[in-house]
Give the backbone structure.
Amino acid sequence: MFLFIIGVLVVALIIFLQDFLYGQGYKYISFILPTLLGGITISVIYCFHYKKLILEKTKKESRYKKLFENTNNAVAIYKPIENGNNFELIDINQKGIEIDNHNKDKVIGMKFTELSRGKYF
């Protein structure tokens, strides 16, 4: 416990000195804290960085999903199966559903060879 208090005091002193001497406060603290606190700072920084990455990924997915759903063209997304010899329908946008009047839930998961026989497309 005593070492922890000393560590906190040293960190506070370093922050104060950096702010006083350099005027940039926390610029160099990320190099000193991991050594003093045994990696706790790295874990915290990683958590914040990971949260930021997840937020950015969610925003990108939302943007592409809106583009996918609101385009005036029919768009279908397939995934290769059977070593690339066939494809499975993963998703289709609203325009693709309107063109051929079929049920989205019914065609999702169907193979391309089944869909291309003319029954659905």
Summary: Residues 40-70 form the longest helix (31 residues). Residues 2-63 form one domain.
